[in-house]
């Protein structure tokens, strides 16, 4: 299990990103946080600089809330997942991301670096803007997720919303286990 920075010593960002809809030039629908009423979380500096991808995977596996599935960068095309939440641990390098859709006035464009963790609720659009220093992430999903879908904003809104509504929230924090920011009972925005 990797050494992680104690919860009280990390910065945790929470961003509630609104849905984005456009009809011109083509119809686009990015639900973002509007269906789950859960924010995007960015945990800063969770894993110390000496932590490699294998140690991150071992840590996540031992905590057991998510299962590591891949190591890669982030796609440059805006996409989201309607059937699962996603946990992205930055294993190397740094990058600038776009969360929420590049035309969405409520988007955020965080810079992330090795040691940071992003928790993206189902429906949150994301894409890579730029990367340096060999940017790589460990991508993880709840253990019962057999396959995650790739949505690009052009699907049937009703079926997308229905799939997102069926995704259960985490029963533990993906990094910290029995306690942690994703378990805060006051996070649901009604």
UniProtKB/TrEMBL annotation:
Cupin type-2 domain: residues covered: 78-130
Q: Which organism is it from?
A: Diplogelasinospora grovesii
Name the lineage.
Eukaryota, Fungi, Dikarya, Ascomycota, Pezizomycotina
Q: Which domain of life is it from?
A: Eukaryota
Q: Which InterPro entries match?
A: Cupin_2, RmlC-like_jellyroll, RmlC_Cupin_sf, UCP019307_cupin, YjiB-like
The protein depicted here goes by the name: Cupin type-2 domain-containing protein
């Amino acid at each position: 299990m990797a050494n992680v920075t104690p919860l009280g010593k990390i910065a945790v960002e929470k961003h509630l990103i609104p849905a984005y809809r456009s009809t011109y030039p083509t119809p686009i629908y990015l639900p973002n946080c509007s269906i789950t009423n859960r924010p995007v979380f960015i945990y800063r500096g969770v894993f110390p600089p000496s932590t490699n991808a294998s140690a991150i995977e071992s840590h996540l596996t031992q905590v057991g809330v998510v299962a590591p599935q891949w190591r890669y960068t982030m796609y440059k095309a805006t996409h989201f997942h309607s059937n699962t939440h996603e946990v992205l641990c930055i294993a190397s390098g740094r990058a600038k991301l776009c969360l929420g859709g590049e035309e969405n006035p409520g988007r955020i464009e965080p810079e992330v670096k090795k040691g940071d963790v992003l928790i993206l609720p189902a429906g949150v659009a994301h894409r890579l803007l730029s990367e340096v220093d060999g940017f790589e992430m460990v991508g993880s999903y709840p253990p019962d997720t057999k396959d995650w879908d790739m949505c690009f904003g052009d699907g049937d809104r009703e079926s997308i919303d229905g799939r997102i509504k069926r995704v259960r929230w985490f029963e533990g924090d993906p990094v910290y286990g029995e306690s942690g920011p994703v378990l805060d009972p006051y996070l649901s925005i009604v």
